[in-house]
Amino acid sequence: MKKYFTAFLVILFLLSASYIRSQTINARFSTYFYTWNRLDSVTASGSETYTNHLQGYQNLLFDVSSKKWSFNTFLQTDEDVVNKIGRGFGYRFYNLYVKGSNLFDNLLDLRIGRQFVAAGVYKGNTDGLYMKLKLGNNKEYQVIAYGGELTPLTYEFGKYPKLQDNYTFGGQFLYYGVRNLMLGLSYSMKNRKPDSYYALRADSLFNANEVLIETDSKADQLAGLDFNYSFLNKHNFYGKAYFDVNRQKFSLGEFNTSILVNKNIRFSADFTYREPQISYNTIFWVFTHSTNKELEGGLDYLFDCGINVYGRVGNVFYDGDNSLKLQFGVSHSSYGISFIKYSGYSGASDGVNAYLSHELIKSKLILSSNLNYSRYRLGTFSTEKLNAFAGSLGFTWRPEPRISVDAQGQFITNEIYKYDTRFLVGFNYWLFSKF
Fold first, then answer.
1. Which of 52, 117, 331, 340 has its Cβ near the most Cβ atoms within 10 Å?
2. Closest CA to 387 of 351, 431, 346, 357
3. Long-range CB contacts (< 8 A, 24+ apart) of 127-130?
4. What letters, b where the CB count within 10 A reaches 16 and e where it falls short, cover 127-150?
5. How far apart are alpha carbons 330 and 300 in whole angstroms?
6. pTM of the entire predicted model
7. Which long-range contacts (CB under 8 A, 24 or more apart) does 350-355 make?
8. pLDDT tens-place string over residues 189-219
């Protein structure tokens, strides 16, 4: 499957490129290096052995477009420069597709290749086909259909199981016929078979034999309703209801609203119902599980100077127990501080977080910093709270608008890491050209 899929994309790209004669190129390249010191072992005498590590990360976004067609890709690579960990080098293709927009007199949108699909109940990466059909005088009816193989968990091109063991397909119907209203009905089927493996098993005479274990494919089949309504461009209402077809159970329900009381005050409320999402034919069916419900309310006061003061209170209702969350703070585009507290079934913890971003030299040099302090209790067996403190300090230098250089130092101290420091440095380049 790998070679056919790759060959198809290359041929399609070459044919489209020769036909459309690209007019614009948009590209972003970034490379980061991350260094740290790792404790590998502690001897009986108490001496410690450390190793130094340096790991590199590269991101490449590359788009070529002209009129109604474009070629889009997003690639990430990583490598161990000093002291190998695991495989040492890896790559991930998150996007690699050809896109056609407003084809056949604005009737059809089309994407072929590796892409992220968001269509109601389904959200995930797919190696396949995505189509959106726009109907009606004002394109108020839209029909989405998609299908293909599920992207490997490593985001590489390879290790594809047989198509019948690894696929997804589905669709969504969207309605925009009423001003400021969106209604959506969706359905998805996802099937992924785990890798087979060998394990020791006892035969009828209780002799240990190595046996090939092959599990059934795990399928998820969901149907759902989504809606969003904006009233007077001030108040917003959003909700969704998802149903698990295989288990014949209501899977997820959510409703949230945002009300603008006046130009400075906004009130928000959220309610969520969750049924644990358990794939069909999995071992997790044998465990006891239950639903939970979450209710949250919040109030924001936005001053004319851009400072926002907010408060949130929420509670998660479990089977016979609950967990309370309190949060309040002050935020601005350049600075902010917040406090959050958890209590009840999910544990007891308190945390304070502060951030600052300041332009030292206009459009050239920016300072950014973050500090976090938290106190938490490890389970119900512990009566004493533990402390954790973390922070970072960094600079971004832009010698010219298309180029930026980042440097950041990080540290953390807690019961596990008494003192841990790390350093990151990176380079970014952005290119946009018209032909």
1. 117
2. 351
3. 127/5, 127/151, 128/168
4. bbbbbbebeeeeeeebebebbbbb
5. 10
6. 0.82
7. 350/374, 350/375, 350/376, 350/385, 351/375
8. 998 877 778 888 888 888 888 888 777 767 8
